[in-house]
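Take a sample.
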Amino acid sequence: MLTLHRVRGVRPGHDGEPIAGYAVLVDGARIAALGPYEELSAAYGSARVREWDGVLTPGRYEPGGAALLEAAYHPDPREADELGGEPLTGAALAALDMTETRWGASARRGLQRLLAAGTTSLTGPFTRPAVRTAVQRSGLAEPPGGRPRALTVGGAADFAVFAEDGSALATVLAGRLVYRRR
């Protein structure tokens, strides 16, 4: 299914100014076209249109992914009264009984935070099996060559849309909407 992402602007790389009026057409897991919204809309009239009031970019790259997911515990909301809502490290982490199951659940919550921040790639290595499995299932991956990719026709449909204040409105991995701000 074709999806046309209409935004205020598209920043194909990680630098430079966004191109106003541009849009991104996604076909499955790949970017099918980048260009002016009016042209893409006319050429692909049957595409589903998603409108975002923000700038579409390749998303954030998190080089410290392993530290965020393997050296911190992301508490379950049901533990908020006891542990709070922020990640625990150091002595607070050492005081917890961390089983593989608990590490996996923590990693999934940490990945949700990363997706909500517009992260589209991260770096390991992930040595804990439960964390490695959670990362693999999330769709987040290390960028080829250790460098985040730019948005290109034929390239992976991995991107994020950011509001003026820098917060993420949406995160898309392999053409799938994996985070949407409510």
